[in-house]
Each structure stands twice: as structure tokens, then as C-alpha cells.
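Exercise: predict the fold of this chain.
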Amino acid sequence: MTCNPAEGLSASLEDYLEVIFHLEESNRVARAKDIADQMNVQRASVTGALKALAGRGLINYSPYSYITLTATGRKVARDIIHRHNTLLEFFVTALQLTPEEAEANACRMEHSIDLVAVDRLVRFLEFIKTCPRTGIDWFDAFARYCQRGVQTSNCEDCVQLCLQRVVSIEAKRDSQELPEERPSGPAVETRETNSKIQNG
């Protein structure tokens, strides 16, 4: 067994882990037949993959028994699914691909992208959803550009809309700020009393 069970894991074995994870989520356990059906492969292929995953300590497996993920296997499977879902959202939201196109590309790319890049994609999506210079209308404009191949938005209108959003955000932020607490205590009371005396 390698020090890192996920190291060098092939795309095919990662797909098996994903399928086992989802079968466990819905059925509590996975069966070789169900895995074969989900993967659209022969039972013999499933047996070889299960032995490889068990050898890495990622699944609990013995012939003719149910298959479950080990704690390590579940963590690896979650990481793979996280990569897949992040890519899927990026393709649909940012690149405006159809769900079918996004799914196909996410399935291909999830096996080669590392977690640092995934984290950066997550942050990028959060940023372009919340930054007043972008937002939903920015995605819509990009979708129109992809469809027509020409700029269809009025840049001046976009800039004005951006400024309005900034003003709105600032106003909301100001309204949510708590009033500054007025200092109190003997020292403050003494200073106020002395001030009143000095001012008559």
C-alpha cells in the first residue's frame, strides 16, 4: 500500500470511487452488480477495480459481499466529487455551457485538476458573483457575446449600473454599522463636570 492511497489513482478508479460513494449514499452499501450497471462495464472489470481499490485501503471488499468505503476512501471520494461539482458550476455559470456540455467536460477534467486550482475556481466564482463590477448581468452579457460573437451591451450603461451597485452596497453597509459606543465611567463623568464648570 502506498503512503498516499490517492496518489497515482487512475481516472477509471476515481470514477469507481465516485459511483461507490453515491451508491452508499442512496443504498448504504454498494454491490458489484450495481457498480457494473452504473459504470456500464462487465462484472469482470468491476472485480479488478475493486481489488485495486481494496489494495489501496480505499474500500472494504471481499468477493460476493457488499462494498463500502473506508474512512480514507470516503475522504478521497469527497475530494473527487468536490472537484467535479466545482468544475460543473464553473462551466455552467462562468462559461455558459449547457448542463450536458458542462457534465461531459467536468467528467474529463476532474481527474487532472488539483485541489489548489479547485479552491481558486471556487474563490473566482464567489468573487464574480459578489463583486459589483460583475454580477448576474455580467454573466448574461457574456452569454449573449458567446451566442452572437459581438458585443451586445452598452458599456456606459454597464458602468452606470456598476456605480449604482457600489452606492447601494455602501449605503447598506453604512446602515448596518452600529453607532459608536459613548465612553462612560468615573473618568468621563469627571471630565464632563470640569468642562461644565469651566464653561460656566
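Check your answer against the key: Residues 11-76 form a domain with the Arc Repressor Mutant, subunit A fold (CATH 1.10.10.10).
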